[in-house]
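Is this the right way to post C-alpha cells for a design question? Let me know if I should format differently. Anyway, here goes:
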C-alpha cells in the first residue's frame, strides 16, 4: 500500500519514540541501584577526606543499538519529508535529502544549489527548515542527528556512557569554598567503587546547596557533546520533527490551493 505524503515521516518518528521508550526502560534499570544523593565524606585519618561512590557500569551494548535505531529513524523522517514535499508540488526530487550544513551560510548555499535540487522547493518550506537551524551550533543540536548517523555507518556503534553529575553544590573546606555547577561528572571505569572527589584538608568538610546526584546517558562519540543527555535530545528531536512535518504540511496545503486557483 502506497503511503500518503508525510505518512512515512510520521511513521519514522513513531518508531523512534518506540526506541526511546525502550531506552527509558534501560535507564531505569541502570538507575535503580544508584544513590540519589552524595553520601557523607569519609576521613582516612591521614588528612584526606573523600567520597566513595558506586559508579554505574558501562551500559549494555544493546543500549547503543537502541540509540542508533532511534537516530536513524529520525534522520530518515527528515529525508522523507523532503521527498514528499517534492511529490506534493509535483516536481522531481530524486536524490534529494534533508539539508544539514556546517553553518547558516552553507545551509543557504544548499538552498540555491543545483546539486541539491532544493531550489525547486517553495521558499516557505526552506524558511521553515531554516528555523530549526540544522547546522553546527544550532539551537537544537539537530545537526548531530546527521553526524551520529554517519558515525554509526563508519564505526558500527556509537558508545553510550552513564556519567554521574552533581548539581549545584558548595563545598566548604575550612575557610575555602568550591562551587560545582552541573559540571562535576565522572564516567564509569572498571572498578565498582571510585573516589568521586578527593581533597586533602585537615578541617571538617561541609556541603551546602543541592547534593542530589544525576545519572545520564551520553554519547562518547558521534558529534554530540558528552555533556548532553542523549535521552533528552532524542525526545526533543522527535517533537521538533513532528512539528516540522505539521508546519510543512500546513504550508503546502495553502500553497497548493493558491497554485490551483492561479492555474484554474
Amino acid at each position: 500500500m502506497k503511503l500518503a505524503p508525510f505518512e512515512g515521516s510520521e511513521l519514522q518518528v513513531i518508531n523512534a519514540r518506540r526506541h526511546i521508550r525502550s531506552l527509558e526502560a534501560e535507564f531505569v534499570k541502570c538507575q535503580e541501584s544508584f544513590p540519589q544523593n552524595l553520601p557523607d565524606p569519609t576521613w582516612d585519618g591521614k588528612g584526606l577526606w573523600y567520597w566513595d561512590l558506586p559508579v554505574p557500569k558501562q551500559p549494555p551494548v544493546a543500549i547503543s543499538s537502541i540509540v542508533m535505531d532511534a537516530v536513524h529513524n529520525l534522520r530518515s523522517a527528515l529525508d522523507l519529508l523532503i521527498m514528499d514535499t517534492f511529490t506534493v508540488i509535483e516536481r522531481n526530487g530524486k536524490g534529494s535529502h534533508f539539508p544539514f550544513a556546517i553553518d547558516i551560510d552553507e545551509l543557504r548555499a544548499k538552498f540555491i544549489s543545483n546539486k541539491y535540487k532544493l531550489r525547486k522547493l517553495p521558499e516557505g518550506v526552506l524558511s521553515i527548515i531554516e528555523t530549526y537551524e540544522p547546522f553546527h551550533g544550532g539551537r537544537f543540536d539537530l545537526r548531530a542527528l546527521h553526524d551520529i548517523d554517519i558515525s554509526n555507518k563508519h564505526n558500527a556503534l556509537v558508545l553510550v556512557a552513564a556519567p554521574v553529575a552533581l548539581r549545584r553544590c558548595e563545598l566548604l573546606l575550612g575557610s575555602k569554598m568550591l562551587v560545582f555547577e552541573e559540571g562535576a561528572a565522572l564516567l564509569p571505569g572498571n572498578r565498582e567503587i571510585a573516589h568521586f572527589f578527593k581533597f586533602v584538608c585537615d578541617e571538617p568538610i561541609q556541603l551546602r546547596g543541592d547534593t542530589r546526584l544525576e545519572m545520564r546517558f551520553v554519547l562518547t562519540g558521534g558529534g554530540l557533546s558528552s555533556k548532553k543527555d542523549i535521552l533528552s535530545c532524542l525526545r526533543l528531536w522527535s517533537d521538533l520533527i513532528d512539528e516540522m512535518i505539521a508546519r510543512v504540511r500546513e504550508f503546502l496545503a495553502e500553497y497548493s490551493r493558491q497554485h490551483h486557483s492561479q492555474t484554474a
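Format looks fine. Someone answered above. Worth noting: Residues 7-263 form one domain. The helical segments are 7-31, 61-88, 104-112, 123-131, 143-155, 230-263.
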